[in-house]
Amino acid sequence: MKILMTFFLFVGLLGILGLSSSSVDDGRDDAAQRIAQMYEENFRLFQGETNKLAEMAQGPFDLSALREQLAKTRYAFKRVEYLFDYFKTEYNYLYINGAPLPKINKEDVNGPIVPPNGLQALDELVFSEEAETEREKIAALATSLKERVDFIVRIHLPLSLSDTQVMEALRSGIVRVFALGVTGFDTP
Questions:
Q1: Alpha carbon separation from 14 to 83, 141, 170, 182 (Å, rounded)
Q2: 3-class SS of residue 18
Q3: Which residues are 103's β-sheet partners?
Q4: What is the rounded average pLDDT of the residues 15-41?
Q5: Is the model's pLDDT at 149 over the cut of 70?
Q6: For residue 116, cis peptide bond before it (omega within 30 degrees of 0)
Q7: Secondary structure of 113-161 in the HEC alphabet?
Q8: What is the pLDDT of residue 111?
Q9: Per residue in 54-104, pLDDT tens?
Q10: What is the rounded distance in angstroms from the CA atom of residue 99 to the CA atom of residue 101?
Q11: Cα–Cα–Cα angle for 67, 179, 116, nearest 5°?
């Protein structure tokens, strides 16, 4: 998976460098426009995979199919993570791909503790030995993830990008892959 993430980031970087000499339309570079369009398409793909995951978790329980769908959902997320984390770092950490531990919202430190949720919490539970007995919790986590993704799509898309933002997001994504991917941080 680390190789796949590195590949996507590398291809994105090459795409930016290769397309950066394109003509400028309405003040934005063509490469940034293409990346924004691809990002929106991939984010909608992630939303669709999240919806399928929630439906499977609510329906008849087939653990192997659920595991496969969770992997598809995670791969769909990995296609947008570098830009999503750049623009919505706190939201990503709290609700989409944060560690499967209780968290505190930095903007409301006296508020309630955010329970473990998101893709990593689902990974931990779905691939555990207790998965068969934790059906309700898996369904609740998948539904919560679906609701969070549906919410962020309404306020986050469409995204307007500049070349600088794309380069910063790619740089940040590459650093994250190497810093966190070395230890297998993202998935248990």
A1: 16, 36, 11, 23
A2: helix
A3: 114
A4: 72
A5: yes
A6: no
A7: CECCCHHHHHHHHHCCCCHHHHHHHHHHHHHHHHHHHHHHHHHHCCCCC
A8: 86
A9: 999 998 989 999 999 999 999 999 999 999 999 999 999 999 998 899 999
A10: 5
A11: 45
Owner of token pair 């919505």: 88
Give the DSSP per-residue string, 85-96: HHH-HHHIIIII
Percent pLDDT > 70 in the chain is 80
| N-terminal to C-terminal alpha carbon distance within the chain | 12
Q: Specify whether the CB–CB gap between 107 and 118 falls below 8 A.
A: no
Average pLDDT value for the chain: 87
Amino acid at the residue 16: I
Q: How many whole angstroms separate alpha carbon 137 and alpha carbon 172?
A: 33
CB of 92 within 8 A of CB of 177? no
Q: How many CB atoms lie within 10 A of CB 85?
A: 19
Cα–Cα distances in Å, from 138 out to 62, 97, 117, 129, 151? 12, 15, 10, 13, 20
Tell me the three state secondary structure of residue 103. Answer: strand
From CA 139, how far away is CA 129, in angstroms rounded? Answer: 16
12's tokens:
């994105």
Angle, helices 118-126 vs 135-156, to 10°: value is: 160
